[in-house]
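Entry for the shared binder. Reason: the reviewer on the internal report wants the predicted structure included alongside the sequence.
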Amino acid sequence: MMHADFQHFQRSFGHHLRDPHHAPRPAGVSSRGCAVYQELVFNNLCGFLDACFPVSRQLLGEVRWRRLNRTFLRDWPQHSPWFRDIPQAFTRYLAEGTIAQPLPRWLADLAHYEWTELVVDTLDCTAPPAASEGDLMQRPVRVNPAMRLVRYDWPVHLIGEDYRPRRPQPTTLAVYRGRDLTIRFTELNPLTLRLLTCLRQPGMTGQRAVEQLAAESDYPAAQLLAHAPPLLDALRDQEILLGVQP
């Protein structure tokens, strides 16, 4: 088989595996052989989706979940050869794809939240040296690098079997990995989110971050400086902040 012919066969075979009801089976391939490959491809895909999105799967129900898995395989282009990129592609499909079946409005946000937990769990990063004791206002602060700050239209951290929101509720979360390697989350208000963003700048002290925050907002600097020490201590207790630069 010539090179061009082989590429054509690969594309045809791939189209058939993803959409066997509409893409014809390539000539020379048995229906039994195709069925085996179809099952392998779909089951492998489902394995990665099931592992990353257990809550979404549970709340949607098995039948609707599998139907969604199939339309994702059929309709959404996969550009990465890495299996680990499948969950991220699925979140994009939910957010951007044209999906015929009716889905809960919060599903895309919930799935992204579940994927973010996986991302944080597998982040390859080393925590910088940090002294757990020290003045967070006066010394450079060490922020936990195994963390993602995310915003959603829905309270994704509350969604479950006993709670399915009917109206949007803007929510900001810090999703991070603790020293014991567990994945945790904390809900943030806009000021705390901005404070953490400032603290991520190299060499930033708590006081400098608060002063920068005051300059950007309508809050009096004195008021923010008074409330900052207990807030920073609480963030350190939660391991969102690791401490201060030694």
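Summary line for the report: The radius of gyration is 24 Å.
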